[in-house]
Amino acid sequence: MMLYTFTGKNFKITDNFSSKIEEKMDFLKKYFIMDDNTEAHVTISYENGIYKSELMVFSKAGILKSEERDRDLNNALEIAVNKLEKQITRNKERLNRRHKSALAEAFIEEVSEDLGEDIVVKTKSFTPQAMELEDAILQMEMLGHSFYVYLDQESEHYAVVYKRLDNGYGLIEIEE
User: How far apart are the first and last CA of the chain?
Assistant: First the structure.
């Protein structure tokens, strides 16, 4: 059983609507074994006539994230759910190869314009997790990001892995 957290920003999430979202996300059962520690955060926001659905699933296999904007709420939700499934299927082989033993419990086998001045428009903070390079690449891919900051287990230094334009990966090692 997955634990859901629903948040509405300029939008009220009713019990009926939250049940509809849970049904849409029920497909995750064919990829992961769900337990009481599997969390899903669902945020629906409405601004300037656009709905934005953000889905984050915290499982034993890693973090999955998807977001979509649309004028139609159902479209935004449907596309975000489809993106989650595509992330899982795209990364399933890599997950199986890299984490065969660790995922045995979690994974089921079945299935620009130059504006002059740079302005910071969003700030996030987090604590980088200790992991190996391959795990950092996997997390970056699953989140759909172009880079990922982590604490390298081997060197015990912070590092940044990033996706290159030639579809390879780059690594920035931070020396102290």
Answer: 44
Pairing of strands 39-47, 3-9: parallel
Look over the chain and give the mean of its residue pLDDT values, rounded to a whole number. 81
> What would the two tokens of residue 117 be?
């001045």
Q: Which helix (H) or strand (E) holds 124?
A: none
The topology under which CATH files domain 3-98 is: Double Stranded RNA Binding Domain (3.30.160)
Cα–Cα distance, 75 to 51 (Å, whole number): 9
Query: What φ, ψ does residue 113 adopt, rounded to 5°?
Result: -100, 140
Tokens 């899903």 correspond to 40
**Topology classification of domain 130-173:** SHC Adaptor Protein (3.30.505)
Other beta carbons within 10 Å of 58 = 16
In the three-class reduction of DSSP (H, G, I as helix; E, B as strand; rest coil), residue 4 is classed as strand
How do beta strands 147-152 and 169-173 pair? unpaired
36-89 pLDDT, tens digit each = 778 889 999 999 999 999 999 887 767 888 999 999 999 999 999 888 888 877
**Tokens (6 digits) for 151:** 């604490």
Centroid of chain to Cα 78: 16
Length of the chain: 176
